[in-house]
Write a structure and sequence with these properties.
- The structure is a single chain.
- The protein contains 7 helices and 9 strands.
- It is α/β, with parallel strands linked by helices.
- The chain has a 9-stranded mixed beta sheet.
- Helix 2 crosses helix 3.
- The protein is globular and about 50 Å long.
Length: 248
């Protein structure tokens, strides 16, 4: 009996994991391996995997001197998407890394922290990866950098008032989102314990904002998770990852 196709996940912080997507992977019997790049883990042979997910983190794409492994990660993403045409999903920093790896630009942006709306573009409304999702999505945001210009040939799928590139697609197999569609009940508490994230939260929402933010996310969590499953199942189908199709 052949082994099930495996998913590779790049993490940049232990608590910036695939979130609720872990439940979906478990339900579908999809095995996955985590490479914790910030802890010095080496990038494995990409050809052993059927897809690559790249999660968020507190570092920025341009901080290669502070985090030398970012250069190796950018090269691995470029190889995965361009040469191997692997199914790819990037979230937050992973979204920015995809853009930078393929020739786009990333820089400091207007910080978005909180529960905020994201609007699908015309390309997003036509994209199968957002099929069944509302044109205006309520999302969890927690970022200060952004994609200033998408890579050549990429389609911008979503935008917000403060950020013109909230989601993008490269061909049919690579998709990324600036917002955190993977949120769980523990996300805000776990991230709020990270000094850089706590500082950004207080700057954006005022001192002592953490419990208020937790309560707001809790009110929206059921919808977040429904949207996350729809997005996950769409991505699995559209990207070409070997997937045991289930009804939504």
């Amino acid at each position: 009996m052949s082994e099930s196709p495996r998913l590779l996940v790049f993490q940049h912080l232990e608590v910036e994991h695939p979130g609720v997507f872990r439940d979906f992977l478990a339900a579908d019997g999809i095995p996955w391996d985590v490479i914790e790049l910030d802890a010095g883990a080496a990038i494995p042979d990409l050809e052993r995997y059927a897809g690559l997910w790249v999660m968020g983190g507190p570092m920025d794409v341009w901080q290669v001197s502070e985090y030398p492994w970012l250069a190796l990660e950018l090269a691995a993403i470029r190889r995965a998407v361009v040469e191997l045409r692997m199914p790819f999903l990037g979230i937050c920093l992973g979204h920015q890394l995809l853009a930078a790896a393929l020739g786009g630009t990333v820089g400091p942006g207007r910080a978005e922290v909180g529960v905020m709306p994201v609007e699908l573009t015309a390309a997003g409304r036509d994209s199968e990866v957002f099929a069944g999702l509302p044109q205006s999505l309520t999302t969890l945001q927690w970022h200060g950098a952004e994609v200033n210009a998408p890579p050549p040939g990429a389609r911008i799928l979503a935008r917000s008032e403060a950020c013109a590139v909230q989601a993008l697609a490269v061909s049919g197999h690579a998709v990324s989102a600036q917002f955190h569609i993977e949120a769980t009940a523990d996300t805000v508490a776990e991230w709020g314990a990270i000094p850089a994230y706590a500082q950004a939260l207080d700057v954006a929402l005022g001192a002592g904002a953490l419990p208020r933010f937790e309560n707001e996310v809790a009110r929206h969590l059921a919808q977040f998770n429904r949207d996350a499953y729809r997005f996950y199942a769409n991505w699995m189908r559209v990207s070409g990852f070997p997937y045991p199709e289930r009804s939504l």
